[in-house]
Predict the 3D structure of the following.
Amino acid sequence: MHSKEINKIAAEDRVPPIQKFIYGLGAFVNNLLGAAIGGMLIVLNLGLGMNPALVGLLGALPRLTDALTDPLMGYISDHSKTKWGRRRPFIFFGAIAAGLIFAMLWQVPREQSESFYFWFFLIGSVLFYLAYTVFATPWVALGYELTPDYHERTSLMAVQNFMGQIAWLTAPWFLWFMQSDLLFDDMIEGAGWLAIIIGGFTICVGILPAIFLKEPSKKPAKHTQITADTDDANTNNVDKKEANVEEFPAGVGDFFKGFLATIKFKPFLSLCGATFLVFNGFMMVSSFQTYVIIYYVFGGDQALGAEYAGWSGTVSAISTFCVIFIVTKLSASLGKRRAFYAVTGISIFGYALKWICYNPEHPLLLLIPPVFIAFGLGGLFTLMGSMIADVCDFDELKTRERREGMFGSIYWWVVKLGMAVALAAGGVLLNVTGFDVALGSAQTDDTIFLMRLFDVLIPIITSAIAIWLIMGYPITEAKANEVRQELEARKVK
């Protein structure tokens, strides 16, 4: 079949540009909250003097609760029936709750013990992530079901990723804003005001997808237990195994059976594993590289280092905007899997460049690696969302269930777990290097060397393993179209 004919999108499968934009606003809010809660934790070390390992734990421990709350929210969203739809009420109230809690979390009491601050932020973070889940999980699921077309899904995810990158354009400047002597007395006061701004924005913008987007009409999902094998080889035997489909009532058992079926689905596991590795590698060094820039490139000058870290992040965000268009074109011509190989390989080259371009004698060179590194996340969240939507169809062919909420919740829990592991490991690695904030610019040569080595080597290794994982992903464009045809045929029976 001619490629132009393959890529032609039916009118009824297209998502209008304004709806793509509004859905993308949800990505902006989602990324802004994720970037803020991760990027502002540095205040606990530099502003309050907390041990980096404890700060890392504060980033990691709340995510453990997400292991239950994210899939549970996905299940609730999949099975909810309201006159406003399955997703929209949760998006609306979740945005309001997340914005309020985030703003309050950073109104930090003064002159308290390290133990007090640890428990204050741990309890507050757990509450914040709960509200964050109520907003984000239904929003993600809504995107998977807005269109059934293979290429329109990539286009939709490209728009939402593009919009989401605006958050990363602003996030690198959070540290500069919080420690501005012109605006605030200290970093703690700056963090409090920044949290109020972000919380208010979350409320005002996060509710818009709930107000203006319409959910596609779906038949109520049957609560079924699938006893058939879910290996890829059995895709064409689903109809023959209908006798093994048993009815059971919705409830706790339904939730756990759906959860287990989801995490056992091999194509989905490949996507989760690759995302964990690419995102984990990036996030670990995104916090780590700030220390490298401050203490290696600028000899401990926090103000100048924060400024250049901001410019580096800005270059990264701008580059990602461009990458998203490139990835969309690559996906249409090469397929989603091969496009992932290409963009992840380019990002590996960018990480390697850090060893040369992070140079105290030529600090402007540090703006070069982000251009190439941007291909990693720019490709990841454009392609993965589209590929998971394909997985949802593949899963329906096997199970006769629609589980966008469950797939989306588990996938994004993996993303958040990756961020948590990165923050925790980053704090531990920082201690391993021998870094001592009290030493200021007098860090040892061994400390600086290990900081640079971890900053370069870790994301290269994780990205390479991710490419290997995706080699086993089975859903090509031809397979996706075949699955859709079989699902459409079922509807007319």
